[in-house]
Design a protein that fits this description.
By secondary structure, the protein is mainly alpha-helical. It is built from 5 helices and 3 strands; from the N terminus they run ααβααββα. It has one domain: Winged helix-like DNA-binding domain superfamily/Winged helix DNA-binding domain (Arc Repressor Mutant, subunit A, Orthogonal Bundle), CATH 1.10.10.10.
Length: about 140
């Protein structure tokens, strides 16, 4: 197609790809924004005395969805104990999950955040998909 001079068709194909990529990015950004707000609301409703610290740790997780406690301490400027306590609150609410299974050097992950980022774009039924492989 590109080599035969059918530039209009090739440009249409290219622009359709740009459009789909942009629509997917906007959709993911909207979903992430809504998820962040929902999680923030859950923290505010049930955080108690830990609400302020938990919100700061939540912000750190939004910036780094896989996070160690020392890095969270540095990013939030909270004490280790305050950070650990806030992270436990986030884990209790299903916002963060500890992934090492250790008592020391633990890592926490914001699973739902990574799930949205890792979703593959689905091709809608009936859409034309072009073969981009060169046949011998």
């Amino acid at each position: 197609m590109r080599r035969t001079g059918d530039w209009e068709r090739w440009l249409g194909f290219f622009l359709e790809g740009v459009k789909r990529t942009a629509e997917g990015a906007v959709s993911n950004a909207q979903r992430l924004s809504q998820m962040f707000q929902d999680d923030r609301n859950r923290i505010q409703v049930s955080g108690g005395r830990k609400t302020g610290s938990a919100l700061r740790v939540h912000d750190a997780l939004k910036a780094r969805p896989i996070l160690s406690l020392p890095v969270a301490c540095r990013d939030t400027r909270l004490s280790f104990q305050a950070t650990a306590s806030a992270m436990e609150l986030l884990a209790t609410h299903g916002i963060a999950r500890e992934i090492t299974g250790k008592r020391r050097n633990r890592l926490f992950v914001y699973d739902r955040y990574l799930s949205i980022l890792n979703e593959e774009a689905e091709v809608p039924p009936g859409s034309r998909v072009y073969n981009t492989r060169q046949e011998p």
